[in-house]
Amino acid sequence: MSHHQLDARRLLCPMPVIRTQNKVNELKPGDVLEVICTDPGALNDIPAWCRINGHKVLETKKKNNEVIVVIQVNHS
Q: Is residue 50 among the annotated active site residues?
């Protein structure tokens, strides 16, 4: 398992989700991806995408003007 970070700041919907999807496709099951966004909609959009695609949301938080979503990759 390895930890990765994706900078999706200054991107508007749907780009944070698309970039997350593209990055997850490069990762292995069990890897952790921390996505940092400035689009507040990502706080709902990325977890919804994770539910549909079977990935686990480990943490969501707002820090300063950023949204951080930490997910664990699960390729079935």
A: no
